[in-house]
Amino acid sequence: MICLSAATLLEAQLERWNARHESAASAAEALTRMRHAVRLGEPFDVALIDDVMPEVNGEQLARAILTDEELRSTPLVMLTRKQAPARR
Prior knowledge:
Layout: H1 6-16, H2 27-39, E1 47-50, H3 58-66, E2 76-79
Parallel strand pairs: 1-2
């Protein structure tokens, strides 16, 4: 059995689409990368946010983005985990 994380699967799909993307290991890193992209004049078209992250959850990261003057116009998509119903 091979279990891949949702992030790994999503990154693989984005690469197949030749979509420019970056991953961050933490909310702090995500904010830093997003601010850097804005300052370069190349803001991200969308932020895909995992709801489960170390230290800061996805909702907290989304709030930080929405209250940041440089980042608040970035569309956000929250990726959540839904557990499949138990099989009988």
